[in-house]
User: What shape does this take?
Amino acid sequence: MEELELEKIAEEISALLEGKNIPKLKQVLTPMNPADIAVIFQEIDEEKLPFLYRILPKELAAEVFVEMDGDQQELLIRAFSDRELHEMLDELYMDDTVDLIEEMPANVVTRILRNCDAKTRQTINEILKYPKDSAGALMTIEFVSLIEGMTVEQAFERIKRTGVDKETIYTCYVTDRSRKLKGVVTAKDLMLADSGTIVDDIMETNVISVDTIEDKEVVAKQFQKYDLLALPVVDGENRLVGIITVDDAIDVMEEEATEDISKMAAVNPLEDTYFKTSVFKHARNRFLWLFVLMLSATVTGLIIQHYEAAIAAIPALVAFIPTLMDTGGNCGSQASAMIIRGLAIGEIKPSDYFRAVWKELRIALLVGLSLSLVNTVRVFLMYGSSIGEQNIPTYMFAIVTACAMLVTITTAKFLGCSMPILASKIKIDPALMASPMITTIVDAVSVLAYFTIVTTILSAYF
Amino acid sequence: MEELELEKIAEEISALLEGKNIPKLKQVLTPMNPADIAVIFQEIDEEKLPFLYRILPKELAAEVFVEMDGDQQELLIRAFSDRELHEMLDELYMDDTVDLIEEMPANVVTRILRNCDAKTRQTINEILKYPKDSAGALMTIEFVSLIEGMTVEQAFERIKRTGVDKETIYTCYVTDRSRKLKGVVTAKDLMLADSGTIVDDIMETNVISVDTIEDKEVVAKQFQKYDLLALPVVDGENRLVGIITVDDAIDVMEEEATEDISKMAAVNPLEDTYFKTSVFKHARNRFLWLFVLMLSATVTGLIIQHYEAAIAAIPALVAFIPTLMDTGGNCGSQASAMIIRGLAIGEIKPSDYFRAVWKELRIALLVGLSLSLVNTVRVFLMYGSSIGEQNIPTYMFAIVTACAMLVTITTAKFLGCSMPILASKIKIDPALMASPMITTIVDAVSVLAYFTIVTTILSAYF
Assistant: This one.
């Protein structure tokens, strides 16, 4: 639903809550989508939230709960009786329960665990042992498993009997008696087959699966490459321990893109949303990189200082530094962004290094020549035929700036292309080799090149 | 499969091709996943590709075809007889056919259209009329539709009869006789219901759907918010015309993130992959922004030039400019990246403007004070007790730089936060208001602030 529409409903609900009109509230909320209800709940007065939540039918209530944010979840759990908590937990899928436990403070977690049955508690503890960001930590254990040798009819019976609590029934996993994964069969295959067919005959045996400790980024890539709806997770002995569904994979893709964008802007990725992260945490996540980059920029400053004499003689020289630094930074940022993204989505592989460098160098030449030309025009328009007290011929200054520009752009494109790829070769996240890092290096190189050229070509003037 | 593994198989296949060992080739390829086969095909000698392709069973061949890149698809189509082309097109889903037509050169398109049956040709023409990037252009028309009043048993019969050619059978769409969308029912609901139940009684009537002209970005967001597997597309009169499946939505999400990252780095988004885009196109996509930003940087240069006298008197002043410019650029880039991404994923809304500014200003204060402190230490370490021939006391220079730093960081965070949000308010893509654009403005502001402070506080020295 549109944001505006939801706001209107939220107002209506607030009014109904005021009047404690329970039947009407039920009537408005029950047909709505859980994700929309969760959005509306954000607009509701905190004190009234538990009351409103209790109006929802049990199953819908649990679905809404999963969509709510951590603060509201905590508020509700604190308001729940043990029995209510127990009932709600019964409705949750295992991966959602684990997410909840990871987000709640310790005393709430204790209460949650106390209200799970023993078997669930054991499973939760096992899942919590998997490394953060691993397939094991992401998976759910509510899947349909079939046993080798079953007929399609038996498979349907099993789905009917157990399917209601499963996160997906559209991909069914066929195992042997020792839980080893033998194949997958989709609900489509089952529905289109004769009821007497043995599932072994229609199952796909070339199964795409991941290990419990596989990184979630790899998991997300599998979904994308193979257009999967679910992916089985197996242990070291190929025993099926869980599945990951496509909705969770989509969330991982979004998180990964957000993390990359943060790193590319020299920010440590946030663990929470923008507004829920405190000012202090934001500052901390940004400070370290700024600190390192600021000190690195000192090098550029020292280079400039080294040419004090030239600057004192021709102050106009300094006016070109921002143009040079900004253009270098932008060129590096363009190349690195293209390469980092290409690496992230698999369009560029580390083995493509020389191909990419060759491409960037040719781009640098084209862009460099065009910009030098523009710059020459700019220089003549700004300065006329000569510059400064020394009457430096403008064409000489134009040559100096054009050369400096070419060196800067080539360096920027070369580093912007090389650093992310080389980083990925030595298993450093390429996203760290983005604009800020590259700009700092390009600045130093370009200023050095500029003054070297200046002191060579214009030496007669100071 | 892992890249290395695929490379090994590719080598094996090349060897088998050399020996024309068809039975063994069939045996190796047939159990493989289409996406993997397409990767292997990239390693195969172009001349031998049509021969190898013809070895695949018809259905698998079409699945592989969809996963291949445009150049190879074109090569195959040119090698196909009309009959082969016709057979292959028969196996494709409508959305894949449309994608193919959009990518092929005109003479190939003519051949494709000639080999479609009349009805398909008409549908293709209708789909091609939808705006690029709209839901209509993205959708497929192979869905399962049920009619109001059907029983679950009748629904199953219909699925069995027509389901084999549908892109998904897991979400079925219930319409009235005039094709108006009335509800959706999942395969899960059907499988868990009694066979005599009327579908109207179990269908969800609160249907999430999009209009044919809705932007694909909105489409992708719906998938994410509601955890959908498929989304119905309706025309202005709520008649069901197609569906979009989650695998296509995932591709859209990836494209959108890539586009945002490109724009944030001042590159016009590419239409093709990095390597398939020509050097000239790359250069063109990068030049315009560089041109604009280079000319804008001239303003900063002019400001510096305006303070020629100060620079000539105290050249050491210039050494601080890179530190100031880089820090400003990085701070702006951090804020804008956080805000742009927050807007893209819906964590930040345009109406949050003042909340965001207030947050960024406090972050700026924390970061600014910390960096000023670090900078003061740096200044004392570098210069000792006095600077330059004029013997400017270092503490005075430290005060000047600290003030300039605070002004720069505050401006950077303020603009980095404001510009994307204000852009989104006036319907400009916030991703354009990223690091390069903000850096250029911050540079001018910070250099101006710096020299204003310098000439005020240090005026006694020149």
